[in-house]
Amino acid sequence: MAKLILSMDGLVLKEIPLNKERLTIGRKPHNDIQIDNLAISGEHAVVVTILADSFLEDLNSTNGTLVNGQPIKKHFLRNNDVIELGKYKMKYMADLQAGAAASDFEKNAAIRSGSLRMPSELQLEPTDRLTRSSVGVASQPKPPAPGMMAAVQLLNGPNAGKELDLTKTLTTLGKPGMQVAVIARRPHGYFITHVEGAQFPLLNGKSLDAQAHPLADHDVIEIAGIKMAFFLKG
Description:
By secondary structure, this protein is mainly beta. Helix content is about 5%, strand content about 45%. The strands form 4 sheets. Strands 2-1-11-10-7-8 form a 6-stranded antiparallel sheet, with no helix packed on it. Strand 1 (about 5-10) and strand 2 form a beta hairpin.
């Protein structure tokens, strides 16, 4: 199980296992991690954990949240990341020995480190120009039926045409430090959510917001400069 190690001035104060999906951090007593210090906002930040992946979000705190010395709003946590809240630090320690879930995490970590290449990290040809009509977008996209599987297909770059099956509950796409999004497979369909980066992903040419958005057959997604088509597999 992944955990956070809370410290101040080099002294470890406690270890916090990430054993729940949503873990709040702040000065008020109702938070899962309470830090009674005036530099910490009442509700400062939250860590969301889905399977082996964890995401940190600053909750519009007064003094902000840093990860590895850089201010963040949303951040995909990686092993040994150091979160800073005022004088307090929390080190994120991923559990790499947690069976099947961990193997997915290690695969994702390899992808993010560059030893494997995700579609979202492929270099685009500067001359690529694609429109929705070029991939046969229907005038009324069909939403996925319960239990239906789906995939994304690259539309540009040297690997155009390759497909990535969305078999996991959570599929991470993007380039850490630039733009990251996740596609979640839920019982009632697939949803895309922005996780990290100043720029939001585009869905059919329109910028998303911070909320989860449902995906329909033949939707066109653009993440970190990579265009891909979402489609259902009958």
